[in-house]
Amino acid sequence: MATVDDVRRQFRNPPPEGRPMMRWWWFGPSIERDEIDRELDAMAAAGLGGAEVAFVYPMGPVTAPFGSAEFLDLVGHAARKARALGLRFDVTLGSGWSYGGPHIGPALAARQLHWDRREIGATAYDVPIVAAWPGDEFVAAYVGDGSAGAPSSYVEVPVSDGTIHVPAGGQPREVLIATSRVTGQNVKRAAVGAEGLTLDHYSAAAAAEHIQCVAEPLVKAATPELLGSVFCDSLEVYGGDWTPGMFEEFMQCRGYDLRPRLYELLVDTDGSRQLRIDFGRTLSELYEDNFLKVFRGWAAGHGVPFRIQSYGEPPATMSSYRFADMFEGEGWGWTRLPETRWASSAAQLYGRSVVSAEVWTWVHSPSFRATPLDLQGEAHEHFLSGVNQLIGHGWPYSPSDGPGLGWIFYAAGALDDRNPWWPTATALFGSLHRLSWLLQQGTPVRPVKIYIPASDAYAAANHAEPLNLYRVVRRLIPDSVPRPIREAGLDFDLIDDDALAVVDPADVPLVVVPEGTTTPPETRRWLDAVVAAGGTVVTDVSTLADHLPAAPIAPPEDVGVVHRRLDDGDFYFIANTGAAPRTLTLDEPMERWSALSDEVTVTRTLTLHPYESAVLLPTAEPETPQPVYQPVGSVVSDWLVAFGDDIRRVSLPHRWEDDPELATYSGSATYSTEFELPDTTDRVFLDFGPGRPVAPDSEPYVPANSYRALITPPVGVAADIWLNDTHCGSLWAPPYRVDLTDAARRGVNRLRVVVHNTAANALSADQHLLDAAAAVTARHGRRFDLQHIEHAADFLHSGLLNRPEIVLRSGARGDEGRRSE
């Protein structure tokens, strides 16, 4: 825990913990020491906290095949360089995702239960067992009386000498033959030398093989003492619902024999629902015992934390996270239930003060379209979902001397120093660092619990839809459950059956149980204890709003609140997630801190501009007078713009894409002018005006999970402001206003506005990238498609898109707000 004084003292310059990190894609692997050093230097200079290395498909000639001595030597070099720079260095324990590779044969590969279903007549049949695919293993056969799809019960058919012996019957019948089949799924986006089958996540032997062949060499190469964590990416083992020895495992876990009733996974019977619940639960436990515990135990032997995104397939429960050291989510949406909430709830329930998220996964597709405002807006969404450590997705390794823009990941943002807006990156990442660190202090206040209907999710799984527990739960808990909680200014944790063992029912004021939910006896007893202790259990979601307690802050539309408790007080992180300004009226005076400004004010009324955030702390201090901005007038003098040595006279607004010569230009341009100021004691600001909201469907090709800020800024897309050769600040987000006071002087003032756009303009004309993708596909097969690259030039707005105004704010610096310590 921390005190209010602790966080006030350190907020402006927090310790390194909480700095955003980047997933660092190594393509090929095609890597060199000098470029490793250069990119790590660039990360450190931008204020990033470290890199999580991920090894993926080639983008050029392979220089160090995955697993080779050369490759491992470069991993070690990168780890040592990162440590020398004070950066955290994490390693993904494999190439691409999910874990697997050439060391995984059919005996250790992910498997799926395959059913052959056919109608037969009344005569006896002897059916030879034939492996239709390599690795096929016969499981069992069943016969039932009646035509196809009609039998309600089946009996197991005897098998001997490699033959299924179907006895004669008195009517048409149906035969079901179950086969354990390798799913055939290969590692996605694999590096050269890492191709192969995905491993069986229910098999301790498969985990041990991957550790021996891949994980152990990687960790030894990096040196355990230099690692921040070892990492497992998304669980995307599609269709993996079987493992050798399943009958024995099921008997041990559930206490009855699965074999005679296996067909109930396919056929609906009076008892099939409970059997499917038991089967799904067994899969979850096998994943925990034979994957999570194995990797965490091995990592602990090296003294390295094991970090994982534990959701998807296999059917990880929310509480499965407890068998890892560090919990990570993915996905934005503060009023919904993204994977991020799966992880942050587990972190709160199981005592992890830091929870990370893979952030910017699909940000403003395609690559290089993302702006600093996009990054800030999506980061706020993750903070509102309980995250306090950002792992950016990501930083593509790319040779500095390559043609065109170089290499990019097939999807997600290319968030490195090739972006023209990179001069503002230090300020952006610095602000996100302050918020991440702050949100690691104290404990979250989440008075509402939402029960995860895991039994119903297990029961809903069938052969046609393999079990992704998180995804099914998303359907069973509609957005109408979390949304009113968040819009009321409150927060919640998800809670499942396993978590009840660590949650005192007397500490839970409100539990929401979705309508029609099946609850095990132990859970019903826990819910009864909540009520007995004075809490409320809501099962009718339509009445949820009537049961919600009053929130300390009642936010307007689009504004989310995170409430955290310190040793001697509380603080609130609030963020406007929409494209319109929102005003809050508070019940008591509060200090207002900004991650972007060092000014502290006391207020009971505040306006949040689009995608703006603030930190609030209750205080007994008097309110700061509300600032009044008085426009002096537009900077109407002649403007010059310089693109390198090309200097032009322009009038504003000036959009580069309107000029055919600049349509594919990515870089910076310097706008300059002069203006006169009277002698004044007022504070002087340069105001570029508000951004222009755009419709959510203005870029129809962008998928729903691709975050973008719905605003066209007056500065496209970021700017550095200089007055009289003094740097006054960087702009990328509303309010597009910068304080000129320290640099302003009576009389003539020289103004420079250095505007930076994105690299998307250049991307739209980069034939080298398309050629590189085609060349590696021809040589190594189709391992990726460049996402939406044909839309790189759509809806771009670069330049100085509005005429700025000089505005005065009454009162000298220091009279209206104090500086933070």
Automatic annotation (TrEMBL):
InterPro entries tied to this protein: Class_I_gatase-like (IPR029062), Galactose-bd-like_sf (IPR008979), Glyco_hydro_b (IPR013780), Ulvan_degrading_GH (IPR053161)
Name this polypeptide is given: Alpha-L-rhamnosidase-like protein
**Organism name:** Kribbella shirazensis
